[in-house]
Structure to design on (224 residues):
């Protein structure tokens, strides 16, 4: 079964600190995504990647960086965490021709 | 970019009745329209999709309708059951562009 694993599952970060969210997929998928979920806003795309060593900006990239060192791994980096980045973050993967997108279980990030 | 609007933020139906969730999109280039379900505290799971070459698709109790002229698509859940209670997200994607744009979600409650 397709699997997307996120770590950590929850994190409390200090304002101004650095946060790294990790994602690993065993689906052999080309595409990986980072979405942010806020109540009332659905899911908004932060960054995505379709090949290792390359990332693309989504709709809300400001304040976030992404890294895709291999096909299986995709990280989201908050260099200077801010209160407004408190949210649930989902990593996902899909094949070259978009059909079903597989989501991880999410990371609940609280910035204090 | 594409904007997907999900019209009902909440929907409550009685068990056995039908539920309808409506979405509209803005970009005429969009050609792939999936629906995802998120149960309380969990991740998103794919439920059904439709592509622009058809206007109706059914999978068991789920029916998706697509009206390309109106740029509108809808999810119909027939004979609802309590386990259908969840947040449902619609999404849209353009062909050759593997990025999903999500609506804001509809919280469906099926009352016994």
């Amino acid at each position: 079964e397709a699997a997307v694993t996120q770590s950590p599952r929850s994190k409390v970060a200090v304002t101004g600190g650095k946060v790294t969210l990790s994602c690993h997929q065993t689906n052999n998928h080309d595409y990986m995504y980072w979405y942010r979920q806020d109540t009332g806003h659905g899911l908004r795309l932060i960054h995505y990647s379709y090949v290792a060593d390359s990332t693309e900006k989504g709709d809300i990239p400001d304040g976030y960086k992404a890294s895709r060192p291999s096909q299986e791994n995709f990280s989201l980096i908050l260099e200077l965490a801010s209160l407004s980045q408190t949210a649930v973050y989902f990593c996902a993967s899909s094949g070259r021709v978009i059909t079903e997108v597989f989501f991880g279980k999410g990371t609940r990030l609280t910035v204090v | 970019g594409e904007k997907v609007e999900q019209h009902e933020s909440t929907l409550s139906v009685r068990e056995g009745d039908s539920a309808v969730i409506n979405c509209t999109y803005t970009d005429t280039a969009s050609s792939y329209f999936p629906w995802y379900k998120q149960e309380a505290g969990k991740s998103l799971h794919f439920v059904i999709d439709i592509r622009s070459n058809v206007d109706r698709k059914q999978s068991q109790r789920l029916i998706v309708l697509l009206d390309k002229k109106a740029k509108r698509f809808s999810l119909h859940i027939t004979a609802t059951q309590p386990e259908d209670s969840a947040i449902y997200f619609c999404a849209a994607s353009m062909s050759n562009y593997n990025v999903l744009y999500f609506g804001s979600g509809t919280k469906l409650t099926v009352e016994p």
In short: The longest strand of chain A covers residues 42-51. Chain A has a mean pLDDT of 94. DSSP finds no helices and eleven strands in chain A.
